[in-house]
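Recap from last week: sequence in, structure out.
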Amino acid sequence: MVCKIMKKGLIGAALGAGTLALLFGTSAPSYVCTAFHKVRGAARASVPFEYDIDKARQDVAKLEPAIQEAIEALAKADIEAKHLDREVAATRDHLNQEGREIVALREHVKTGDVQLTNNIAYSPSEIKKDLARRLDHYTQVERILAEKQETLKIRKENAAVIQKQLTEMQAAKRELVTRIEGIETKLNQIKATRAADRFSFDDSAIGRAKASVAELEQRLEQMEKVDELKAKYAERGVSVTVEPSRDVLKEVDAKFGTGSKGSDRNTADRSF
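Predicted structure tokens:
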């Protein structure tokens, strides 16, 4: 079953490669690479910025184990250097003491005083043998002292290197943390600005709305003016209410003399 699946996969890959080769020829690998980068770029752009900030924080946090390791290494190097420094000092003191004893013994041989401690007299050959033993030991301790001093020098140099690396790592971590905080602050500012822009009004929209309202007001004012002019210039009779008890005909006859035939003729001849 697994072999069949692998076989199908290989056949599919071969067919895909053959199709690309037919379509693009020798440029097929370039097209595939370009498509891959585009897909990867699109996927990368879809990742939230906050996720990248958290990832950067995690990457910076991963420096902490290395810093702790450097601290432990520095502490160990300092302690070893201190102990070795004490050994070097003790060896040097012991070597100086041996040197003084060798010089004193040589003076005894030089002066011929072969009686040393506890009133015991030694022969010159015995003193020379003791001098040879002491000198060999002195030379050996001197070589050991030189080796210890060289080792001490190397350990101090190593401690200095570790301390420098530790200082650089701590400084780098502080700088990276500060830069991440700055990025996050800037991101929050951008988000706040975008939020403000999202709720801000469009000045052009306000202008259009104001123009529409002004136009409505103007049209309403024009309608009122038209009604006013119609009422002023329209030709229509005036409605007059007559009291029922009023004798309008009598008043007209008295005013214009229209009650008799003669009066009618006079009225007809009168020009108004």
